[in-house]
Design a protein that fits this description.
The complex is a heterodimer of chains A (323) and B (353). Chain A is mostly helical and 323 residues long. Chain A contains 13 helices and no strands. The radius of gyration of chain A is 24 Å and the shape is globular. Chain B has 353 residues and is mainly α. In chain B, 62% of the residues lie in helices and 7% in strands. Chain B is built from 12 helices and 6 strands. Chain B has helices at 20-23, 28-38, 40-57, 59-67, 124-160, 162-177, 180-193, 211-237, 240-247, 252-288, 300-308, 316-343; strands at residues 79-82, 85-88, 90-95, 100-104, 198-200, 203-205. In chain B, the strands form 3 sheets. A two-stranded antiparallel ribbon of chain B has the order 1-2. Chain B has a two-stranded antiparallel sheet with strand order 3-4. A two-stranded antiparallel ribbon of chain B has the order 5-6. In chain B, helix 6 (162-177) packs across helix 8. The radius of gyration of chain B is 25 Å and the shape is globular. Classes of the chains: A mainly alpha (323), B mainly alpha (353). Chains A and B meet through helix 1, helix 6, helix 7, helix 10 and helix 11 of A and helix 6, helix 7, strand 5, helix 10 and helix 11 of B.
Chain lengths: 323, 353
């Protein structure tokens, strides 16, 4: 087990290094482009360009340029956005991260509960109208672009039905930190949570249903039935538990992707100042240092999450542990 | 997302309600075709998808012959005729209770400006149709390119194994490690901001062309198709018929193309409709973030973006393209399920001799 963990972590370090190199190359070493013009933002003054050139060591060899950039990003943490002078990149990310976490954790709770209920109901009522109906709902859920669903939700909750009892509680778009006012935090996030989770509810419900149907012919399920256990107990204690293995590993990866930037569209539509929205804003102003930092942050988070999932998985299920 | 987590079953299985006689002595492709045609839901989905494709590719007919509007030129001071009356495309003073600003024409439900006008007085219906064309071209094109690249890389990696496999698989893992949207954003910002287009060798990619989003989306999804394919190539390579071909002195190229490829291509085909569904969603998201299709061209994503500012006054602008996306992606997902069931029914039906 220890060997496995060490190897997985060593692999992680290599991947992280390669990711940072790749991002650096994509952003600053594109053939035929002057990186100093890029870094300096839109329509820079010649003095800024010269300062940038010196600061990033653009007249020095490639490995030095890479090292300087990484030093500013991780060690001195003073990478400054040139399009938006006051903005320091690393603190901007650390203040935005809690918003993204609030959004993703809430949505994750919602999608895990609802999709398990849907999957179990679909299998319980297989052969009746309930099963196909639930699966159609799930399929529609995975077919909707999340930003469009968010706009439709906004249309109804902020405007068309805002004055009716249904949505009169909805606060204007934006965010209130949990530490400031927990109740407002909750109210602001209900609709974004729902919007973000719809896709995953549909996807996980389908996966869980397929999994449950697959295990229902397994020997251990037959044994459980033969012992005279109630169907409900067989379904919940025996079948569901085993089906959750796939579920858990999918969950770890999806959660990582969402925190790492996948929630960008939801954040933009609902005006939540998270990491995704930071990326979006810098995209609008072509603020390359910020985009690069958020991309690296996201990729790092996802890679670390997937390594953790692997290790946790190997801990839970010894069959997976390769030596 | 692991939407493409798909492991093919090695041997041919019976679909529910199918007898052994029906499939014995027929080629796998014919069996699959028959199963697909019998699947009414999948056929309905295919019909819906083809209908959407046909309607979108007839966009010029609508714009030129029916509505007589140009969806790519702004028409701020234009007028049009509704119910025999001449009305402004952008109406003054309709916005909110203050009576300020301009509000574009709402849906007329008539031949011209069927869905109303957008901020610049352009016909939304025509833009949705033209936009659909671009979205479908990018979606289908990038899914195909992605599958072809993944097939080639998987054949090379799985066939040569060893070093080639290590390098190719690790490269794929690296792309996989990136969040899809962030990789697309990185590539798009770089490609779109390079003046005069990026030159790769002797090819120059114009930032305004549809090839930019198509290639970006194709590239980011390669690892998702590559993974299942590589595993399959590795297992097919060990089969007796491949050994037989080797002993007959077949060349590597021949082994790859005529012995291994036909046995793994079905996996790529199963994934194709689901891939197109995913790439269409990705395209719309990128265009919504204004790093996909570039103005004046339209796609469903850009029309939704245009409609964002008009959301509360003229919601049709944002809603209509979204409904088109949902219908298209839904049809492709249902069709994808059907194709998978046809080529590889995982149904646990036991044949009793």
């Amino acid at each position: 087990m220890l060997v496995f963990v060490v190897r997985r972590l060593a692999g992680l370090v290599v991947v992280l290094f390669l990711i940072s190199v790749l991002v650096f190359l994509i952003f600053f070493e594109t053939p035929g482009v002057d990186p100093s013009a890029r870094l300096a933002g839109r329509n820079p003054a010649p003095a800024t360009v010269a300062a940038v050139k010196h600061e990033f060591g653009l007249d020095r060899p490639l490995p030095v340029r890479y090292a300087l950039m990484m030093k500013r990003l991780f060690i001195s943490r003073d990478l400054v956005s040139y399009g938006n002078q006051a903005l320091k990149v690393v603190p901007a990310i650390t203040t935005a991260a809690p918003v993204t976490f609030s959004l993703v954790i809430g949505a994750a709770v919602l999608w895990v509960i609802v999709s398990i209920v849907m999957g179990v109901l679909a299998v319980t009522f297989k052969g009746t109208i309930v099963d196909p109906l639930l699966m159609i709902v799930a399929l529609i859920g995975i077919s909707m672009p999340v930003f469009w669903l968010g706009e439709v939700m906004n249309l109804f909750s902020q405007d068309r039905l805002h004055d009716t009892f249904l949505f009169s509680w909805v606060p204007p778009l934006g965010y209130t930190p949990l530490t400031e006012n927990p109740w407002q935090w909750f109210l602001h996030l209900i609709i974004p949570w729902f919007t973000l989770s719809v896709l995953y509810i549909g996807f996980y419900a389908r996966v869980l249903r397929a999994n449950l149907l697959e295990v229902q012919n397994e020997d251990y399920v037959r044994t459980a039935r033969a012992k005279g256990l109630s169907p409900r107990r067989v379904l919940l204690k025996h079948m569901l538990r085993n089906s959750l293995i796939t579920f858990v590993s999918l969950f770890g990866l999806d959660f990582g992707v969402l925190v790492g930037g996948g929630a960008l569209l939801t954040e933009v539509v609902f005006g939540l100042p998270g990491v995704g929205r930071l990326t979006y804003n810098s995209l609008v102003s072509l603020d390359l240092p910020v985009i690069m930092a958020t991309v690296i942050y996201g990729a790092f988070f996802i890679t670390i999450m997937s390594a953790l999932v692997d290790i946790l998985y190997a801990r839970l299920d010894p069959r997976i542990r390769p030596t | 997302m692991a939407e493409f987590a798909y492991e093919p079953e090695p041997e041919l299985k019976l679909a529910p309600g199918e007898s052994v006689r029906e499939i014995s002595g027929r080629s796998p492709w014919r069996i699959a075709g028959r199963r697909l045609v019998r699947n009414r839901l999948a056929m309905a989905a295919l019909g819906l998808f083809l209908l959407i494709v046909a309607v979108c590719f007839l966009a010029p007919v609508y714009a030129n012959d029916i509505a007589d509007t140009d969806p790519f030129v702004s028409n701020i001071s234009g007028t049009t005729i509704v119910d025999g009356k001449r009305v402004d495309v952008l109406q003054q003073g309709g916005g909110g209770g203050l009576g300020l600003g301009e509000v574009p024409l709402g849906p007329t439900w008539h031949s011209n400006y069927f869905l109303g006008a957008d901020n610049q007085g352009r016909d939304v219906m025509a833009r949705v149709l033209y936009g659909g064309r671009a979205s479908l071209e990018i979606g289908i094109g990038s899914a195909l390119i992605s599958c072809v690249i993944a097939l080639i890389v998987a054949l090379l990696a799985g066939f040569f194994r060893g070093w080639a496999d290590t390098i190719l698989s690790r490269t794929m893992d690296l792309i996989w490690a990136f969040p899809v949207y962030l990789l697309a954003i990185s590539l798009a910002t770089v490609l779109l901001t390079t003046p005069g287009g990026v030159k790769i060798g002797f090819i120059t990619i114009d930032p305004a062309s549809l090839w930019v989003p198509t290639l970006i989306i194709a590239l980011i999804y390669v690892p998702y198709v590559f993974r299942p394919l590589r595993g399959q190539v590795l297992s097919v390579r060990e089969k007796e018929y491949v050994e037989a071909a080797i002993s007959q002195g077949a060349s590597n190229l021949r082994l790859m193309l005529s012995d291994i490829l036909p046995n793994v291509v079905s996996t790529a085909i199963v994934l194709l409709p689901l891939m197109i569904a995913t790439t269409i969603l990705t395209e719309s998201a990128l265009s919504f973030l204004s790093i996909g299709v570039q103005a004046p061209k339209a796609s469903w994503g850009t029309v939704i973006q245009d409609g964002q500012e008009l959301l509360y006054t003229r919601p049709t602008v944002a809603i209509a393209p979204g409904i088109m996306i949902v219908l298209t992606v839904l049809a492709l997902n249902v069709l994808g399920d059907g194709v998978r069931d046809a080529l590889d029914p995982r149904a646990k039906v036991h044949v009793r001799e």
